[in-house]
Every structure is written in C-alpha cells, then in structure tokens.
C-alpha cells in the first residue's frame, strides 16, 4: 500500500470512528471559540543533583524556556497577556515567575502568576490560562510547568495543627509518598513482579523512543552552566536530551534492587520502580482558534477540558482511576475513543493499579515511557505530558489524548486534548 493510500485509509478509519460516537465527532469538530495550542515544547528532563540541569535554578530554567517560546511562537510578545507557571517546591514562586517573564524578553504588560496543586500543577496552569481565555479575560497566554528539584529539594509536608492530626482522614496527609505506594500495593494485592514488569516496560519504551528520535520535536535545548562537584570547575554546556533513561533495563534486573521502604509492608517499592527526582520545564501557548487564524498561526491541537477529584490520601496514587472516568463522562466518551493515555508514573504500583482498574490497552499508555524512565519534575509533569501527548498523536496520526496524574494529599486530575496535525 502506498503512503497516500495509507493516509487515505487512516482518514477513513478516523471518520468511521467519529461517526460511531457523536460525542467524539463533536470533540473533533473545529469551532472559532476552541482553545487551541499553537506551540508545545519542553526542556530535556535530567537527573536531579546529577544531570545537566543540576545547577540551573528555577529562574534560569524559566528564562531559557520562555525565551525559546518567544522566539519560536511567531507571536509578537506584546500580545501575550499572561503566563501561568506551575511549580511546587520553589520559595518565592510568584516573584520568580514574574521576573523570568520580563528577563525572557516579554514586555511589562505581560502578567504572571503561579499554580500549585502538587503533581498536577502544570496541567492546572494550562487550565487556568484556558479558563481566562474562555472567560474573555485575556486573548493569548502561556502555560508553563517547571521544577528544579536539584536547587529546591522537597521538604515534605508542613507541621499540622492538632485538629488536623486528630482527623482520621485529614491526618493521612502526613504520610510520606512512599508509604502511599506501599498502601496501594497492600490494599489491592499487587505483587513485586507486576510492579517491576510495569517499570521495565517504561524504561524499554523510553529507550526505543529516544533511539528512534521520537522526543526530538518535543525538546528544545537549554544553554546553561554546570559545576564539577569534585574540582569546582564551572563550564558552559548545552543540554539537549533526557538523561534518566537506563538502557537495557529488564524486570529481572529491577527485581534485584532492594526495597526502598522495608519498614512499610509489603515493601515492593524501589528506586527502580518509582519516578525519578528530576529537573525540567515545559510550555504551552494557548488562544482561541479565531485568534490563531487571524494571526496566521499553525494549530497543533486544542485543549478540550480538565477535571479534578479527591480521594483517600492514604492511597492517593490511584487518583487517575477516578479522574479519567470523570473526564470521559463529562465528554460522553469511552476509553476506546482515546488514542493515547499519558498517565504520570509516580510509582509503578499506581500505574499497575490504574491500567488494570480502567481496563486500558497497555499499548496506548505512555507509548514513550513515563516518569519512571524519564523523570517527574513535580510542577513540570502536567505540562510535559501535554507536549508528549501531542507529539505522539502526530507520530501515530491519531487524534485524542487523555493526560492524568495522581496528586499528593489524595487527589487526581485529568485533561483531554485533540491533535490537529
């Protein structure tokens, strides 16, 4: 079959699928008030305290990414009215966000804000900008997710009042994330073998994607400086690829890694089957379709909507199993209508549970690997998933993606995106 015939067959299949579900057809329709994405890029994700971005502070990370967005967006920066930065760990977030916007070459008329709902902060930033555009508050905005876990280590939960600590549910917020992973494994009878197998597949998919160049159109390079911890020498480098992917990873190899939390049963979580501590950032440019057309901009896709839900903090990892059905219900879609699921792999325990609980086709879940293999910069992930999902939809010549993640303190969030490549 020729490439033209393959393309025609693909279009026919998509039309047939859309006709089978009127809700899917409505989702794929193009309307002037759609919130569209005209640029979606990310930095490489690198190992915290070890990788190429270990000495790059949050402000420098934001300046680098926002400068690239300004240069690549084909938009007069004077038209950008607001930038929302999803970030979890940094002190002085609001000051850093505003300063970085100005330092990246945007005018004083471009405002800035921050969003923090833990691991969903990047997706929350997308939703915040989209909602402002829908409400008519702004016309054009940029949603960013960014985290420097090297320079802003996670200090954990704050001290709680006695009233909170005495509440049987609220006090669960004090549980470390590792303990919630073990709680999921214990409550839902997950085995170490299942968990290591899931993690190994993440590494294998990411390795294949990196070797095949699938990440190339996602990533923009970062010019930065790195300090040699032994000699103290500082040198300029260009970081242009993810560095957490361990080639040749197998379930058998992961099975040899000792339990990270032997004091919590069943002690199945390890450094090999949990997300990596990582530095990185991602950005998405949003506006109405009518505005993008007026400016002559190419449209990559559209943001359809997002939702959030809460659940017991002690098993917060299963958040996507609650949030995904909720967002699908709001759009009258089924899991079969979705071409790609980007589910954050905070722990392989939650990945195994959510995929099994929802009955997902594993080939559709994180086709390029997930946070176990490439890392989870907390505030970045929600935006990074959007960048990855749109790129993967283009590669597969598919249309609909769902992104989702569990959220510390017991929540889940999910969003729906459509590619218009």
TrEMBL record:
Enzyme class: transferase
Cofactor: K(+)
Cellular-component GO terms for this entry: peroxisome
Gene Ontology biological process terms from the UniProt entry: fatty acid beta-oxidation; phenylacetate catabolic process
Keyword match Signal: no
Gene Ontology molecular function, alphabetical: acetyl-CoA C-acyltransferase activity
PROSITE patterns, per the entry: THIOLASE_2, THIOLASE_3
InterPro entries: Thiolase, Thiolase-like, Thiolase-like_sf_Thiolase, Thiolase_AS, Thiolase_C, Thiolase_CS, Thiolase_N
Cleavable signal peptide: none
Catalytic activity of the protein: an acyl-CoA + acetyl-CoA = a 3-oxoacyl-CoA + CoA
Functional pathway: Lipid metabolism; fatty acid metabolism
Domain of life, source organism: Eukaryota
SUPFAM superfamilies: Thiolase-like
EC number(s) on file: 2.3.1.16
Domain Thiolase N-terminal: 35-290
Database matches in Pfam families: Thiolase_C (PF02803), Thiolase_N (PF00108)
Annotated keywords: Acyltransferase, Transferase
Domain Thiolase C-terminal: residue ranges: 299-417
Residue positions of the active site: 119 (acyl-thioester intermediate), 376 (proton acceptor), 406 (proton acceptor)
PANTHER family referenced in this protein's UniProt entry, alphabetically: 3-KETOACYL-COA THIOLASE, PEROXISOMAL, ACETYL-COA C-ACETYLTRANSFERASE
Entry's family note: Belongs to the thiolase-like superfamily. Thiolase family.
Protein name: acetyl-CoA C-acyltransferase
Originating species: Monascus purpureus (Red mold)
């Amino acid at each position: 079959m020729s490439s033209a015939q393959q393309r025609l067959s693909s279009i026919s299949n998509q039309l047939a699928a859309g006709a089978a579900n009127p809700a899917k057809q409505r989702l794929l329709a193009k309307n002037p008030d759609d919130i569209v994405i005209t640029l979606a890029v990310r930095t490489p994700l690198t190992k915290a305290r070890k990788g190429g971005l270990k000495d790059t502070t949050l402000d420098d990370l934001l300046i680098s990414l926002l400068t690239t967005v300004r240069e690549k967006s084909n938009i007069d920066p004077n038209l950008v009215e607001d930038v929302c930065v999803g970030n979890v760990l940094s002190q002085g977030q609001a000051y850093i966000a505003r300063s970085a916007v100005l330092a990246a070459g945007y005018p004083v008329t471009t405002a800035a804000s921050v969003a923090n709902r833990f691991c969903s902060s990047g997706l929350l930033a997308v939703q915040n900008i989209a909602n402002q555009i829908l409400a008519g508050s702004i016309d054009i905005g940029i949603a960013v997710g960014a985290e420097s876990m090297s320079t802003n280590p996670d200090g954990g939960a704050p001290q709680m009042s006695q009233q909170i600590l005495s509440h049987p549910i609220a006090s669960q917020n004090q549980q470390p994330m590792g303990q919630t992973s073990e709680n999921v494994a214990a409550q839902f009878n997950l085995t170490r073998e299942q968990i290591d197998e899931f993690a190994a597949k993440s590494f294998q998919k990411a390795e294949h994607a990196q070797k095949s160049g699938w990440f190339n159109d996602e990533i923009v390079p970062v010019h930065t400086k790195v300090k040699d911890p032994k000699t103290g020498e500082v040198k300029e480098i260009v970081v242009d690829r993810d560095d957490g992917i361990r080639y040749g990873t197998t379930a058998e190899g992961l099975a040899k890694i000792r339990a990270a939390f032997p004091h919590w049963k069943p002690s199945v979580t390890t450094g090999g089957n949990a997300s990596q501590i990582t530095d990185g950032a991602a950005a998405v440019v949003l506006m109405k379709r009518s505005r993008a057309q007026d400016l002559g901009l190419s449209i990559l896709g559209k943001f359809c909507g997002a939702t959030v839900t809460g659940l017991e903090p002690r098993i917060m990892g299963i958040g996507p199993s609650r949030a995904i059905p909720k967002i699908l219900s709001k759009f009258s879609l089924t899991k079969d209508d979705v071409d790609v699921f980007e589910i954050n792999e905070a722990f392989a325990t939650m990945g195994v549970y959510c995929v099994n609980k929802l009955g997902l086709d594993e080939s559709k879940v994180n086709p390029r690997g997930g946070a176990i293999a490439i890392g989870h910069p907390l505030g970045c992930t929600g935006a990074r998933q959007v960048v990855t999902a749109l790129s993967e939809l283009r590669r597969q010549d598919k249309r609909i993606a769902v992104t989702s993640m569990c959220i510390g303190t017991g929540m889940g969030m999910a969003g729906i995106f459509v590619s218009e490549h």
